[in-house]
Amino acid sequence: MTRPASALRESFAALTVLLTQMVRALVSRPETVDFPFGPPEISHGYRGRITVDPEKCRGCSLCVRDCPALALELQREGKNVFKLIYYPARCAFCGQCEASCTFGAITQTNEIVHGTSDPEALQEVLVDRRSASPEDAEG
Ligand code: SF4
Ligand code: SF4
Fold this sequence. Notes:
This protein is an alpha+beta fold and about 140 residues long. About 25% of the residues lie in helices and about 20% in strands. It has helices at about 5-25, 60-65, 95-100, 135-139, and strands at about 50, 70-80, 80-85, 105-110, 125-130. The protein has a three-stranded antiparallel beta sheet with strand order 2-3-5. A two-stranded antiparallel sheet has the order 1-4. Strand 2 (about 70-80) and strand 3 (about 80-85) form a beta hairpin. The longest helix has 23 residues, at about 5-25. The radius of gyration is 27 Å and the shape is rod-shaped. The protein binds iron/sulfur cluster (2 copies).
């Protein structure tokens, strides 16, 4: 049994569309990004990891108090001796710490935090303030 001419025409038209799309896909820019083989294209407003300007930080711990994810820790040894530690794997990227810091020390960037099998290894000492005088160290 032979196929009617109209069915053949439809098949040919569908094949033409398919081939056209294949050629277009081959010569056009990829729709997907290169990540993780290249840098990700991240929009300006993306809420990513935080950074702290150590010079501005006073060790007030407002950011620690307001962080809903326990992603910040202040280890104080004296009046002007403290460390501010960040745990990116716990961070919810909510931006609350930036809003809470009255000294403008925290900035939320658009940098992503990569996945890892060892989340605690991502922890980072954002501020490591050492004593300038013996009285400071005494607290
Ligand atoms: S980053 Fe800001 S809110 Fe956090 S301890 Fe430093 S000064 Fe205080
Ligand atoms: S962005 Fe949110 S979750 Fe992350 S450290 Fe700041 S307050 Fe905590």
